[in-house]
Amino acid sequence: MKRTSVRRAMAVTAIAAAAATAAACGNGGGSTSASSGSTSGSSSSGGTTTINFWVRVDNPSVGLAKQFNATHKNIHVNTTVVPDAEYVTKMAAAVRGHSGPDVADFDDINTPLFAATGITENVSSYLNTLSFKSSLNQAEMGLASYKGGYYGVPYINGSSVMMYNKGLFKKAGLNPNQPPTTWAQILTDAKKISALGNGVAGFTIPGACGGCTVYTVWPLIWASGGQVMSAFGANQTTTFSTSPQVTAALKFYRELWTSGTVASKDRSENGTTWGQAFMAGKTGILLGTPVDIPTATKNGVDVGVAPIPGENGGYSTFVGGDELGIINGSKNVAADETFITWMLGVKQQEYVANPWYLVPVRQDMLTSSFASKYPIAAVGLKASEQGQVPKSIGFTAATEDANAPWVTAFEQVVFSGADPATALKTADTNAKQILAQQYQQQVGG
Which of 372, 369, 371 is nearest to 380 (CA)? Predict the structure, then answer.
């Protein structure tokens, strides 16, 4: 689950059509198997209720569903893997055709879209039955809230962190147990590591990957007291030009680039190969999600993990991840809720942390015992207490697509030395138009 990969564009027309269908007739409760092409509706026979579960590629869901089936006799989960690039389109088509799953695991950034278009059911009453509701990640809960209700349940916390190569720190004369806690320290440490030569870079920038930069640059901004987007709604816009911390962050990245601490190929890095140099022991500091750590460790890299710092201290994170939703029209809501509750259990959330190197969504799991057993996940869990994630219908188009206003401004300032004030003002103007258009198409006036 590469949380720093480029998100795919939303299927606007398909979602809008699905919303109209859901509103008109409530959607049927069938399910389709997108991976095999076969169709099998939800059913209850012989005392066993079968629910259909759509999941994203390469995440803990398939393994957890198998564990659930092995321990439950009265409910059976049929799992279908749907690629991220096809997820929104397939979901819209399935709901429109009355063949959607009962439960879905989806990219948390799509939760507002699914809520506003009637794809997911209101689960507020169910959430109120959970004894640990108050400990569920607040950023993801915010994404799930819509018109006074909740239309998703936090499931995986894909928070970004700062990873660093302890071996390179030591070779560069730095304390491997003292990661940088300010931007100035990141720059100083990156310069010393780059001076080692032999193809070693002190820092890495995913220069052409909008989905990567929101995970890596925005936490720097939030930790410094800045914001990147106004409140959710019809008049939402980005706030790049009116938040001084955004300008400061891009100037900081510009200095990292011009000081020679970053590999030249990073300018065109679109996310497909990002992290490979770190996993090979050739990068000192990487901001991102911990999914690269297993391979790096296997390659002999001693990886340290710390929160992403603000300019002068503090920390934050981009709370990416997954939410679970009951899809409009499911005939097996009681079984759906039983399954979701089980997925949020401590043991299952520990499985998210190991072997997947992701983060639980329950803050009540952040104990000394958990930190001792899962130190990497504990850093992300702690960071997510200060984490954020923008709530928007047009998030991808405005910030992550190849030609998104944020991506354009980032490239102009960091790599070409453009005036931040001009580039960011243009980005805000263009983003506002995109956000308004997508909100109107999905939600209406």
Answer: 371
Report the first-to-last Cα separation within the chain, whole angstroms: 35
> Residue 205: what are its φ and ψ, rounded to 5°?
-125, 125
Q: Model pTM greater than 0.85?
A: yes
Looking only at the bridges linking them, the beta strands covering 303-306 and 161-165 are antiparallel
C-alpha–C-alpha distance, residues 323 and 110, integer Å:
9
> Fold for domain 161-316?
D-Maltodextrin-Binding Protein; domain 2 (3.40.190)
The CATH fold of domain 12-159+320-386:
D-Maltodextrin-Binding Protein; domain 2 (3.40.190)
Which residues on neighbouring strands pair with residue 404, listed in sequence order?
A: none
The pairing of strands 283-288 and 161-165 is antiparallel
72-129 tens-digit pLDDT: 999 999 999 999 999 999 999 999 999 999 999 999 999 999 999 999 999 999 999 9
Query: Is the peptide bond between 355 and the residue preceding it cis, with omega within 30 degrees of 0?
Result: yes
Cα dihedral 221→226→231→234 (10° resolution): -70
